[in-house]
Amino acid sequence: MTVLAPQCRTRIKFCGLTREEDVDAAVAAGADALGFVLWPGSKRAIDERRLAELGVRVPAFVTRVGLFVDPSPALVARCSPHLDLLQFHGDETPEACEAAGRPWIKALRMREGLDLPAAAEAYGDARALLLDAYRPGVPGGTGDTFDWSRIPASLTKPVILAGGLTLDNVDAAIAAVGPFAVDVSGGIEAAPGIKDAARMAAFLDAVRRADERRSR
Ligand SMILES: O=C(O)c1ccccc1N[C@@H]1O[C@H](COP(=O)(O)O)[C@@H](O)[C@H]1O
């Protein structure tokens, strides 16, 4: 049974970083977590050598998240020394996620008919569930949103809301869902894998403003 801590502020993860200057800007802006895509099929993919180079720039208390899509155990093992948390974004079973032996979160794509409470139960050892839009044949990073009203209020896992979040909709997303965290990739980019420092800072401001409004 997961005990959900009371919400104080919405945590923020920026995903798909590939450049030193973007890591530095994200940390300076105040991101809680930085995501590195280790799935070679992505336009934002980096390999383990780049992961080591970028990961070492991330200070303590900022979480380094490795994004995998149905990875081999060997890839996860090679990347793990440079990561604090694993994000499984494919069709990994709960057993495969747990077998990595590291803290992990599970991404669930909101395809029609997905039973979220049952999935939360099945992935009971996950530290959180990341909810992303579903587009057939694409594991994620689509920039698509989904119908946030499909998320039940009483999930037994912290929710990380993802999928097409931007400066313009993150306020409404937080008001509608009240997630533990938000995760954004395309919405803070100038081009795939190239983050925009001004958009990152503005996204953070928008989340803080949304939190203020919620606390009133
Ligand atoms: O970013 C990718 O290329 C990617 C590839 C495969 C799986 C997930 C991927 N990204 C993650 O998708 C969500 C939503 O991204 P967006 O904000 O809609 O662009 C997020 O968790 C990304 O990290």
TrEMBL record:
Its EC number is 5.3.1.24. Pathway: Amino-acid biosynthesis; L-tryptophan biosynthesis; L-tryptophan from chorismate: step 3/5. SUPFAM superfamilies: Ribulose-phoshate binding barrel (SSF51366). Residues 13-205 form the N-(5'phosphoribosyl) anthranilate isomerase (PRAI) domain. It catalyses: N-(5-phospho-beta-D-ribosyl)anthranilate = 1-(2-carboxyphenylamino)-1-deoxy-D-ribulose 5-phosphate. InterPro entries: Aldolase_TIM, PRAI_dom, RibuloseP-bd_barrel, TrpF_fam. The keyword Transport does not apply. GO terms for molecular function: phosphoribosylanthranilate isomerase activity. It comes from the Bacteria. It is an enzyme of class 5 (isomerase). Keywords: Amino-acid biosynthesis, Aromatic amino acid biosynthesis, Isomerase, Tryptophan biosynthesis. Belongs to the TrpF family. NCBIfam families: PRK01222.1-4 (NF002298), PRK01222.1-6 (NF002299). This is N-(5'-phosphoribosyl)anthranilate isomerase.
